[in-house]
Amino acid sequence: MRAEHLIWIYVVLGVGSMTALALFEEYRRRSFNPPRAPDLVFRCRQCSLVYTDDPGVERSRCPGCGVTNEPYDFR
Ligand SMILES: [Zn+2]
């Protein structure tokens, strides 16, 4: 009887820790791999057009008037 209980506790702990580990791995994977960097938002200083461009670019040309603009910082 007692040995049977110990086996059950062992099984429950084993399954429980496996589940916890899997959840932790999933959580860690998500926090380390964000889906994709969001596009940069630009606001033209000449015609006030708001447009986006690929992340990583330092300057982008306004599709409306062709003026080169710096990324618009929301913060
Ligand atoms: Zn413009």
Structure description:
- The protein has 75 residues and is of the alpha+beta class.
- The protein has 2 domains: 1-35; 40-69.
- Helix content is 41%, strand content 16%.
- The chain contains 1 helix and 4 strands.
- It has one helix at residues 2-32; strands at residues 40-43, 50-53, 60-61, 68-69.
- It has a two-stranded antiparallel ribbon with strand order 1-2.
- A hairpin with a 6-residue loop joins strand 3 and strand 4 (68-69).
- The chain is rod-shaped.
- The N and C termini lie far apart (64 Å).
- The mean pLDDT is 87.
- Bound molecules: zinc ion (ZN).
- Zinc ion is lined by residues 44, 46-47, 49, 62, 64-65, 67.
Q: What Rg do the Cα atoms give?
A: 26 Å
Largest sheet: 2 strands, antiparallel
The helix-and-strand class reads alpha+beta
Multimeric organization: single chain
- How far apart the termini lie comes to 64 Å
Low-confidence stretches: none
Give average pLDDT, whole number: 87
Task: Domain count, please report it.
Answer: 2
Largest sheet: spatial strand order: 1-2
Instruction: Note the run of SSEs as H and E.
Output: HEEEE
Helix content: 40-55%
Number of strands: 4
Name the shape in a single word: rod-shaped
- Strand fraction band? 15-25%
Keywords:
1 helix, alpha+beta, two-stranded antiparallel sheet, binds zinc ion
